[in-house]
Every structure is written in structure tokens, then in C-alpha cells.
């Protein structure tokens, strides 16, 4: 049987128990040219919250009564005459929150799970890693010597952004929630400084820890942290708008950055990004990041929780911040 | 004697009668290497409001008891051994709101007032024209076929932005206040459409007049118009932040654009500019714009009011919108 998380009701604010329903259905019967993938891991990402809204966005919203959209990784367990894939192949794609998925392979790609553990392919070698890589290097136009500020710095994207900036010879300040995460950034990931937004006043902390201002701000959170970062821009600074997790569960309007006129004063720019635009270069990026990982220059951290039954509770950790690194749900049952 | 407008008190909100004082002093005595310029025209610009605030910005604020800062144009009436300038030369620079100014020439440059009337050199061939030229071409990265939206479209900068975009083969929609200005944009300046923000709902009007969205938004006003423009961005759109006249007299916080996450959805950018950065290329731009004017492709409109005594009332027109084109004060007395 196949356990599937079905999207039942568009949430207002934070999703509640009515948002999804866990249902058990038959494992799909393969058509000619299809493979059956058994999911091992599901990727949980803040972007999921956006996909639930009935808005025009960079992809259509998840439909009511559809399987909840999610990135995933698993192994081929059955094949009906597929031209490329065979039983045992490890594939990653948009499989959704369910245990099994049938596909003709469109949008999936094969990875070699003998060179790295599976979770890594939906973490630093997957979407979050790609987002960090192209976001900071291409959109952020990172240069050696830049002073880089990153929010959500202990998360899947932010932690990689900061480490790439260190590899490239920059000064890096991370913003995260809680002492443990801040210590982790400085002591384990090599950030130059960290700001605990839960216990520090962000304006005072920026003054202390970025006394010379910032060249690049990589924003995962929006809200007052974005607004504060705008007051510290250096000339020709770049702000990368990757997300706005502080605003995703708003029941009221998104908070606009009232300090945006700093863009004028500092001839700075604020640019949005969506990782899918860089798909053709994922291979090159994964190769470079894989090398950094092998050399010990880039650490990938996954927070893995178990059981598709625990989806709701685990999803909540994205927004409570109660996890470190990439949030992953293991759905393979022993 | 020299009539000077002295800055007396930093305003909160819109300047009042205590903000400035008109004083009469001796005409300055020239030092060795100086010239005396008799002002003919003073440039009145929305940016003046920003210069009155005691904030860090792209230039220092005007000091209390100093002559109010302003661009100006006039003629040399006296010389004390100046290496380049002679009596009768026409010079433009930052002379301030006063009738006479003594200078060694730093920051001034000579123009040929036999080829164009003096006001044009502080209008389309001066700062506002340069702002429009570099703003739309360099910061806005204008391409043939782009759909361009410009606010403050009947103003000194906006009217030139729109006309340059037409010259470059774009579709241009202007936003201005009142039917007369909107008719002027379409009938006299060749804009494709105009939106009267005073009588139309901006969201509805944008839906009607920019049905395909916009590639470039040139923003002079900020506030709800910027926020509305953000909802109409096409992929890879560019927003040029040139000013925010709707917010300059705020007594409360600037309104941040709550729709800024459209930048992410549309992979768009928002970039600030200050015209002084392009100073080394002013000559080239003035030459090209002068050619367009001569060919009848670019119209320059000046709204000229008379008398330094009427500064306060005339300055108010910048914000009430009660003028068309570049606002200029004639301070030469007959």
C-alpha cells in the first residue's frame, strides 16, 4: 500500500490539521514506459507554504485533493519497459509527500548513491545547495573580500551560502535563532560572526558585527531583518531575495521594507531568484560543491525525522526553527 | 545687494514658513581666482526635500544658516583673475537659492546659451535630463520592444524617460495627476497611454493599460504606485528607484513595498540610482539629447515662475503637482 499526504484545504496563516489528510491507497500500476519509485526521503522546504496559496507564482499552486508537492529521493523498485532506468537506480525529483510514485522519468534524474548518502542529494547537492550556489555567486555577484550577511544562516540554504562565501574569501555574518545555532555557525561552519535574532536587537547587533556595512545580503526571511539589513548597505550592495520565511504564514499583508530607499542612497540592488532557472548548470555546481565537501571545505548538515505519519509535526520545524540544516523526512519503512 | 534664501529650521513633514528666511546681504567680494555669477534661473527639484533632513544620504544635508542648496544657471558679471572664465560666460552648477554667488569655478561648467535657452541647461540638458537618460538606459537596461511604465511622468525626469523609451522603440505608459497632464503625455509627448492616479484606481488602470505587464518601471513616486507596479512585472523586469516624492513629506515611516516578493516570482530587480555617478558621461548624453531635441523627437517643457520672493509658493508646486515639466524659478530681476 501507498501512504500519501493529500492536500485538502488551503490554509490561512499556519496550516492546521485540516490542511492535509494522510490516506492509504493502492500502489500505482505501471503503464508502459514507467517506473515505480519507492521514496526513501522527502524534502521539507519553506517554499511549500507558498505552493499552498491560490496565487500566481513561479509554479502553479498545489491543487486540492492532490498529493502535497515536495522534492524527494528514492529507488526504482519496478519497471515496465523503461528506456533508461532499471530496478535499484536511485532517482531524485518532485515525487510529493508519499511512499511510492509512478513516473515516466520526466523531471527526475539519476544520482549515484554509492558516492554520497541519499539525503545529501536533496540537501547540499540538491535544491537548497543549488539555490545557495547560484544565489550567492550569480545573483549576489560575490567578489573576494565582500562582506556578506545571510539570514536563515543555520538553514539548508543559508548555511551553504555562508560557507561558499568563506571559500571565496569573504567576511561572513550569519543571522540565526538561538545560541546553539549561532555557535554552530561560528565554531563548526567558520562564519566570522553570528547574530541571534531571538535574543539580540537586530539593529544594535548589525552595528556591532558589521561595522563597515555589507556588500551582499542574502535574504531568506524578509520582515524586520531585511529592513534592518537595508540600513547597513555599502555602495553598490546587492540584496538577493531568496525567500521571506517570516512572512509566509501571515494572515495580514506582507511587511514591505520601509528602508528600501537605501537602495537609492547606496546605488544598490535587490533581486529575486528562483533556482529552477539554473537547471542546465546544476551538474557543474554539484560537481564543484561535491569537491568542496570531499575537501572538507563545505559541510552539509541534515536534520532527518522519521515517518510520513509525522509530516505535520516535522513540517512545523521549518517555521519554529527547531532543527539545524536541511529538514528531511524519512518515509521508507523498515 | 544679494537676496539669499537661508535654511533656518529642519522641517518635519512639509516645510513651513519657518523653514527658510529670505535675507539681503552684500554681494560677495571676489578673492583672487574667483568669478561672480549673477543667477538667472534656479532649479527646483523634489530632491531638495531630502537634503533638508539630518540623515546620512548620498550628499550631506544642508546646514542650518546656510544658503538653501539648488542647481542654478547664470552669467559671469565680474572676474578676479580667473584662468578660464570671463564676463558674459554662461555657467551652470550648484549655486543655491540666491541671486549672486562667488566661486573659483569648482563644480561649475560653461554652456553655450546661444544654442539653446538657458532654462534648458538646468532641465533636459541638465540634471533631470541626465537622470532620465542614465536611469532608463543604464539602470533600466532598456531594450527595444520593452513595455515601460513611468510615474511622475509629466515631470522633469519622467517626461524625458518616457520620450527616450519611445525613441528606443518601446511601449510607454505614464502615470500623472489630472486629465490635462495625461492628455499632454499622450497627445504632445507620444506616450502610448496615461493613467491619472488622481481619478483612477491604480490597480484597475494598470490591468487595463498594461495588460501584458511591464518590463521596466521607472519610479519617481514610491508609495502605493510602486506597490501596484510590482504586481505587473514581467519576467526579468527592472525597477529603477529614482525617487519617492509621495513619501518625502511623511511624518511617519516611509511606506515599504509590501509586494516586493514579486521580485522573486518574476526574477526581477529593483535598483537605486543617483545621477552624479554618471558625471563623466554627461557630455555624451547632452549631445545625444540635444540632437533629439533638434530633430523634434524630444520635447523639453519648463514651468518657469518668477521672483526669489516667490520661492516658497513655487517650491510647493513640486509636491502639489501644480506645474508641468521642469520647475524653474527665475531670479534675475529686470
From TrEMBL, chains A, B:
Span of domain Enoyl reductase (ER): 13-329
Record-linked Pfam families: ADH_N_2 (PF16884), ADH_zinc_N (PF00107)
KW tRNA processing (keyword) present: no
Signal peptide span: none
Keywords from the UniProt entry: Oxidoreductase
Protein origin, superkingdom: Bacteria
PANTHER family: PROSTAGLANDIN REDUCTASE, PROSTAGLANDIN REDUCTASE 1
The protein, known as: NADP-dependent oxidoreductase
Native organism: Asprobacillus argus
Amino acid at each position: 500500500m501507498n501512504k500519501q499526504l493529500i492536500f485538502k484545504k488551503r490554509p490561512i496563516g499556519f496550516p492546521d490539521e485540516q490542511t492535509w489528510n494522510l490516506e492509504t491507497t493502492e500502489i500505482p500500476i505501471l503503464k508502459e514506459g514507467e517506473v515505480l519509485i519507492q521514496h526513501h526521503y522527502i524534502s521539507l522546504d519553506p517554499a511549500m507554504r507558498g505552493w499552498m496559496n491560490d496565487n500566481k507564482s513561479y509554479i502553479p499552486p498545489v491543487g486540492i485533493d492532490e498529493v502535497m508537492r515536495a522534492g524527494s529521493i528514492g529507488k526504482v523498485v519496478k519497471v515496465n519497459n523503461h528506456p533508461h532506468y532499471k530496478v535499484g537506480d536511485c532517482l531524485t525529483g518532485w515525487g510529493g509527500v508519499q511512499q511510492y510514485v509512478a513516473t515516466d522519468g520526466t523531471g527526475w534524474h539519476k544520482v549515484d548513491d554509492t558516492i554520497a548518502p541519499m539525503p545529501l542529494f536533496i540537501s547540499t547537492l540538491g535544491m537548497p545547495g543549488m539555490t545557495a550556489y547560484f544565489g550567492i555567486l550569480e545573483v549576489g555577484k560575490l567578489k573576494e573580500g565582500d562582506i556578506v550577511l545571510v539570514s536563515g544562516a543555520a538553514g539548508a540554504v543559508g548555511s551553504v551560502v555562508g560557507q561558499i562565501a568563506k571559500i571565496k574569501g569573504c567576511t561572513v555574518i550569519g543571522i540565526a535563532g538561538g545560541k546553539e545555532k549561532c555557535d554552530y555557525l561560528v565554531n563548526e561552519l567558520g562564519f566570522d560572526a553570528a547574530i541571534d535574532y531571538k535574543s539580540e536587537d537586530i539593529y544594535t547587533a548589525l552595528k556591532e558585527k558589521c561595522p563597515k556595512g555589507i556588500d551582499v545580503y542574502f535574504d531568506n526571511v524578509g520582515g524586520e531583518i531585511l529592513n534592518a539589513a537595508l540600513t547597513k548597505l555599502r555602495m553598490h550592495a546587492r540584496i538577493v531575495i531568496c525567500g521571506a520565511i517570516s512572512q509566509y504564514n501571515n494572515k495580514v499583508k506582507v511587511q514591505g521594507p520601509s528602508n528600501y530607499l537605501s537602495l537609492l542612497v547606496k546605488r544598490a540592488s535587490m533581486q529575486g531568484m528562483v533556482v529552477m532557472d539554473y537547471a542546465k548548470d546544476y551538474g557543474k555546481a554539484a560537481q564543484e560543491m561535491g569537491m568542496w565537501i570531499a575537501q572538507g571545505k563545505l559541510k552539509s548538515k541534515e536534520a532527518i525525522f522519521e515517518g510520513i505519519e509525522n509530516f505535520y509535526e516535522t513540517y512545523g520545524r521549518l517555521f519554529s526553527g527547531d532543527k539545524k540544516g536541511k529538514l528531511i523526512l524519512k518515509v521508507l519503512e523498515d
